[in-house]
Design goal:
This protein has about 160 residues and is of the alpha+beta class. It has helices spanning about 45-55, 105, 115-125, and strands spanning about 1-10, 15-20, 30, 35, 60, 65-70, 75-85, 85-90, 100, 150-155. Strands 1, 2, 3, 4, 6, 7, 9 and 10 form an eight-stranded mixed beta sheet that branches.
Length: about 160
């Protein structure tokens, strides 16, 4: 079973999602950023590394929000979900077909990875992160607060 660490990055009541490339396994599915743990790496350390590689941000993960095991038939995963309310840098797409800031409720209508549905329902049901709505951006950036959080897209090579 492979292990992955995933970050639910909050800003102004929204979360950052990435859409997998058309050539990737599970093509064009939306997911939360993160990636595989390397040997000897803790889930939190893997998340910090992956968010830097995928988005160019330096994140300070909060506590583990959720843990689950998911089997897609061709692969089984143990997924560690962390909240991320603090980060430096402006997220830059280095991996996905596109990235987008959306509300947790928006995720319910998106074509997300099946394994992420449970945590999306948890976010919506428990209102996790909604306390950020209307507050200054949790992620401090080199430009201050981002003016347009609706869509951020670009290239990268997510497989």
């Amino acid at each position: 079973m492979k292990e992955v660490a995933v970050g639910i990055i909050f800003r102004n009541g929204t979360v950052l999602t990435g859409q997998r490339k058309p050539t990737a396994r599970y093509p064009l599915k939306w997911e939360f950023p993160g990636g595989k743990l390397e040997p000897g790496e803790t889930p939190a350390a893997a998340l910090v590394r992956e968010l830097h590689e995928e988005l160019g941000i330096d994140a300070s993960p909060g506590p583990e929000l959720h843990r689950q095991e998911w089997d897609y038939g061709d692969r089984a995963w143990r997924v560690y979900y962390f909240t991320v309310h603090a980060f430096t840098g402006e997220p830059e797409n280095r991996t996905f077909a596109q990235i987008r800031w959306v509300t947790p409720q928006d995720l319910l209508a998106m074509d997300i990875l099946d394994g992420n549905r449970e945590v999306v329902e948890l976010l919506c049901r428990d209102g996790i992160g909604q306390q950020d709505a209307g507050s200054p951006a949790q992620g401090k950036t080199s430009r201050g607060n981002a003016a347009d959080d609706e869509n951020v897209s670009g290239g990268g090579d997510r497989q």
